[in-house]
Amino acid sequence: MIEVVAELSRGPVFLAGEALECVVTVTNPLPPTATSASSEALAWASAQIHCQFHASESRVALPPPDSSQPDVQPDSQTVFLPHRGERGQCILSTPPKILFCDLRLDPGESKSYSYSEVLPIEGPPSFRGQSVKYVYKLTIGCQRVNSPITLLRVPLRVLVLTGLQDVRFPQDEAVAPSSPFLEEDEGGKKDSWLAELAGERLMAATSCRSLHLYNISDGQGKVGTFGIFKSVYRLGEDVVGTLNLGEGTVACLQFSVSLQTEERVQPEYQRRRGTGGVPSVSHVTHARHQESCLHTTRTSFSLPIPLSSTPGFCTAIVSLKWRLHFEFVTSREPGLVLLPPVEQPEPTTWTGPEQVPVDTFRLFAS
C-alpha cells in the first residue's frame, strides 16, 4: 500500500496566469519494523492540470465530437489520462510533468517532490451553473509495478480577470513591484507582480464612484427614483442602492430587490423548445431585500456579493451577467391615503381599509 498526499502551498484559489505550486509526498505507511519484503516499487508518477467542461443536454445543443482526433486508448490502464472516468469533455490541459520514475520505498519511508505549473490564462473561470460547468483539477497519476494507474484529483478554483491576457512580465526588475526585504525567485517575482497588478486594476475599476439615477414608472405615473453609486464590484462587497419614493405620484406599498446572476446560452448552442429543451436563460438569486414602504420618503438597501460566486464572464457557449431584479407593489388608486387626519374636532375611531387594489411590476438593472 502507498499513501500519496498533495499539498498546495498557497491554497486552492488561483488567478489565471499564476503559478500553482504543489508538494507531492509519497509514503510507505507500514511501520519501520516490517520486513524488507514489504518495500513498495513505483514505476512512475505524473501531474497535470486540466479543465473539465460539462453541459446540460436539455439546455445546450453541442456539435457532435470530432471523429478525426487520434485514438489515445482511453480504456488502457497504462495511459495517464487525468480526466479518465469524469463526465464531460476536457477542454484545456497543461503538459504532463513526470515527478519520478523507478521509486522504491522501504517501510516507513517517504519522499517529497515539487510540482509547479502556470495556470492557462486563456481558459474560462471555474463555474458551476445550471447549463454548463467548468471545473479545474490538478490530477496526480501514480502506477505501481504490475498494477493499474491510480489517480488523485485536487479541486481548484480559478478566477479570470479581464485585461490580463495581453500583459507581459517586465524584463526590467526596477519597474516590477517588489519588496526589498524578501528574496524571491523569478517565478515568485512574476506571481507577486501579477497579483499586485490584478489588485491595482480591481481597485481602480471598483473605486470609481459616480451617482447614477434612474426614474421608476409604471402605467399610471412615476413611482420614485433609484440611485446607485457604482456599477463595478468585487467579490465580497455590498451592492448599496437608494430609493426616493417622495417624488412619486403613485403610492408604493412594498418593494423587493434581488441580486441575481443570469446564465445565458449563446444562440448557436441553444436547444429548441420544440425538441424537449428548456429555457436557455436561468437565474440564481444570491441576496434579497424586501420592505414595506407606504408613506416612506427615502430608503436604502445593501446586498452582499458572496465570495464563493463567479464574476461575470463570456465564452463561446455561455455568458454570465449580474443584475438587480426589482419588484414593486403599487396602488391603483391615485393619491392613496391610509393615515387618519392629523387634526380632528373630537375623538373618533379610525381603521384602515381592509382591501387595497394593487398592481405589481418588475424591473431589471444590469
What would your notes on this structure say?
This is RGP1 homolog, RAB6A GEF complex partner 1. The chain has 366 residues and is mostly beta strands. The radius of gyration is 29 Å and the shape is elongated. About 4% of the residues have low confidence. Strands 2, 4, 5, 6, 8, 9 and 10 form a seven-stranded mixed beta sheet that branches. Strands 14, 15, 17, 18 and 19 form a five-stranded antiparallel beta sheet that branches.
Order of helices and strands: EEEEEEEEEEHEEEEEEEEE
Number of strands: 19
The gross shape turns out to be elongated
Number of helices: 1
The mean pLDDT is 84
Compute the CA-based radius of gyration.
29 Å
Helix vs. strand class: mainly beta
Largest sheet: 7 strands, mixed
Terminal residue distance = 55 Å
- Regions with pLDDT < 50 over 5+ consecutive residues? 171-184
Give the percentage of residues in beta strands.
Answer: 35-45%
The helix content, as a percent range, equals under 10%
Pfam families: Rgp1 (PF08737)
Organism: Microcebus murinus
Protein name: RGP1 homolog, RAB6A GEF complex partner 1
In short:
With 366 residues, the protein is mainly beta. Helix content is 6%, strand content 44%.
Notable characteristics:
single chain; 366 residues; mainly beta; seven-stranded mixed β-sheet; 44% strand; elongated; RGP1 homolog, RAB6A GEF complex partner 1; Rgp1
Mind sketching the topology for me?
Blueprint: E1 3-8, E2 13-15, E3 19-27, E4 40-55, E5 89-93, E6 97-105, E7 110-118, E8 127-128, E9 132-144, E10 149-159, H1 186-206, E11 212-217, E12 222-228, E13 238-244, E14 252-265, E15 281-292, E16 298-304, E17 313-314, E18 318-331, E19 358-365
Protein name: RGP1 homolog, RAB6A GEF complex partner 1
InterPro entries: Rgp1
Organism: Microcebus murinus (Gray mouse lemur)
